[in-house]
Specification:
It is a single chain. By secondary structure, the protein is an alpha+beta fold. It has 7 helices and 16 strands. It has a 7-stranded antiparallel β-sheet. Strands 13-14-12-15 form a 4-stranded antiparallel β-sheet. A 3-stranded antiparallel β-sheet has the order 10-16-11, with helices on one face. β8 and β9 form a beta hairpin. The protein starts with a helix and ends with a strand.
Length: 258
């Protein structure tokens, strides 16, 4: 009877561990690799107590072996989350979001059970302090120049790079009438005209229920995002383009020390 009980317990233990999934698999680990545990709320520093930074390749491999998640659960998210980030050559190559109040972790659209004691263990063994800077850029070139200077510093970890999808944006005011009866009708009118200048993935048309549109019901002010070329070449009879604004994007830069 005792042997049967032992076998049952061993079988149960095997089934539980078989459900575990390694968070970071088949990743490159070398002298340029760092494993970072960092909080997302830099204003209130929520979950700061679990911060960690590992830069030794052997220690990173050991930590990755221990970082596992349990069974998949319904997708749940916490806005002020904690991130476990694998950094390679100052680039964020893989990051898990940990939701401590929900005891789960998410990656690539899936959410799994997670044991918070794993964070406690790493933060005690590899404690770290972090800071984040937010910088506004007007072009990818400006961002890349700033990034190159940060890489020369020993405490720089990685950055969240801005998208720079469009060069800028401008407005066009349309009268509310039978031809321009709704934002949808205006968008359908603009689309073939714009696509004679740029391709369909080089612009966007949007309507915001902002103060101007809310307070002036006899018109629709549309925003078109795209290139300066589009702004200069787009010609519409009786309508005026206004307020060209170059894109301003924010890049976030993360620094850490042990």
């Amino acid at each position: 009877m005792k042997n049967i009980l032992v076998l049952i317990l061993l079988s149960l233990s095997f089934n539980l561990s078989a459900q575990d999934k390694q968070m970071f698999k088949a990743v490159k680990i070398d002298e340029k690799t760092k494993l970072v545990g960092i909080y997302s709320d830099f204003q209130n520093r929520k979950y700061e107590q679990w911060s960690f930074l590992i830069d030794d390749p052997a220690a990173i491999r050991q930590a990755l072996n221990e970082l596992v998640v349990g069974p998949e659960v319904t997708n749940m998210f916490e806005i002020k989350s904690f991130h476990v980030v694998l950094v390679q050559d100052n680039k964020d190559v893989m990051a898990w979001m940990i939701h401590p109040s929900l005891n789960c972790a998410s990656y690539d659209g899936h959410t799994y059970k997670f044991d918070l004691r794993k964070l406690e263990k790493l933060s005690k063994k590899y404690p770290a302090k972090f800071r984040r800077e937010s910088i506004t850029f007007s072009s990818p070139k400006e961002y890349n120049q700033f990034l190159a200077r940060q890489k020369a510093g020993s405490n720089f970890l990685y950055s969240d790079s801005p998208m720079f999808e469009y060069e800028g944006s401008f407005e066009i005011q349309f009268p509310r009438n039978k031809k321009f009866s709704s934002p949808k009708a205006i968008s359908e009118y603009l689309t073939p005209i714009i696509q004679k200048i740029v391709s369909e993935n080089e612009y966007s048309i949007s309507y915001a229920l902002n103060e101007k549109n809310s307070n002036n019901q006899d018109q629709f002010t549309m925003e078109i995002a795209g290139s300066k070329k589009l702004f200069e070449k787009l010609k519409l009879d009786g309508l005026q383009k206004k307020n060209w604004t170059s894109t301003k994007e924010i890049g976030y830069f993360y620094y850490g020390s042990k």
